[in-house]
Amino acid sequence: MDTLSFADRVVVVTGAGRGIGRAHALLLAARGAGVVVADVGARVDGCGVEGDTPAADVVAEIEAAGGRAVACRADISTESGATAVVEAAVEEFGRLDAVINNAGIVRTGHFDEVPVEEYRRHLDVHFFGSLFLCRAAWPHLIASGTGRVVNTVSAAMLGNPLMTHYGSSKGAVFALTRNLALEGARHGILVNALSPGAGTRMAENSAAALSPEVMAYMRTQLLPEHVAPVAAYLAHPSCQVTGEVFNAAGGAVSRMAVVTTQGIHDSDLTIETVAARFDDVMALAPGARPDVVPVPQTHTA
Ligand SMILES: NC(=O)c1ccc[n+]([C@@H]2O[C@H](COP(=O)([O-])OP(=O)(O)OC[C@H]3O[C@@H](n4cnc5c(N)ncnc54)[C@H](O)[C@@H]3O)[C@@H](O)[C@H]2O)c1
């Protein structure tokens, strides 16, 4: 198979100063992309910023390797910050072809003990950050003709101990992905999501929700570099799916499908019928089918 090049593409990666986002940025730049390394330098729980400059550090790393990158230390959880990230792409490279919404924060806690403002903070970074970036980028993605959006969700959206606030905000990103996939299809913009696993700073901070064995495995076996090829493929014009979610960890890649069962139909439905036929409602086979976002065969660029 031919090497997949990004030589003519410009990609924004949020949260690219550390962890998984840094791996995305390094890989894309190594394949020729102009990369906006967007990272405010947030603390892992999103409570303020740290003193270091991770975005500038990653840009220096890319440039030292001969790549093209620009740093943007804006806070993507605000509309003005997300707009500044997109403006950095256009000012530096003159276009924008793909957005990888990767910036994230986490804190653990029982759902009834986590303050409501934590729920809002998680929604602000994960949901509104992704939304604001997509809104600011949208005209440029339409102009690209092969616009791509890669959002970042988490297995926690399906349920994880001590992560109701985090998992719920990722669930909102999942729904954003499905709906933007519908919005984008007529413009040739494909929108997918990645559910990663890697032994990063964030994983360390989630240790309370993970067993010591899982943490040790993540540190040694689940590297950010294992996740980046999946994000890069989803940001490439050759990728033709939309509205899908992919798990990526330690070299394992799989599709996370939403499935509707064949279920039952009874126009005289009663409570007792539901109870009596509940096994049929639940049964996955035969006739189970993944719910997909339809992609029009033709689109306007
Ligand atoms: N590490 C995992 O196993 C795992 C699992 C599931 C999902 N995720 C998701 O993957 C993504 C990357 O996580 P990571 O493990 O690399 O975390 P990380 O903490 O190592 O890196 C996240 C980066 O996002 C930046 N950031 C946070 N808020 C920001 C804001 N408002 N504006 C700009 N930048 C901001 C931080 O400064 C940080 O550099 C996140 O969305 C996370 O929720 C990670």
- CATH homologous superfamily designation of the largest domain: NAD(P)-binding Rossmann-like Domain
Q: Label the structural class.
A: alpha/beta
Task: Give the domain tally.
Answer: 2
Give the end-to-end Cα distance, rounded to a whole number of Å.
27 Å
- By CATH reckoning, the class of the largest domain would read Alpha Beta
Strand order of the largest sheet: 3-2-1-4-5-6-7-8
Low-pLDDT sequence parts: none
Bound molecules: nicotinamide-adenine-dinucleotide
Please count the beta strands (DSSP E, at least 2 residues each).
10
Work out the strand percent. Answer: 15-25%
Radius of gyration: 20 Å
Reconstruct the topology from this structure.
Blueprint: E1 10-14, H1 19-30, E2 34-38, H2 54-64, E3 68-72, H3 79-93, E4 98-101, H4 116-144, E5 148-152, H5 164-185, E6 190-197, H6 201-205, H7 212-221, H8 224-234, E7 245-249, E8 252-256, E9 259-260, H9 271-276, H10 278-282, E10 289-290
Parallel strand pairs: 1-2, 1-4, 2-3, 4-5, 5-6, 6-7
Antiparallel strand pairs: 7-8, 9-10
Helix pairs in contact: 1-8, 3-4, 4-5
This protein binds nicotinamide-adenine-dinucleotide.
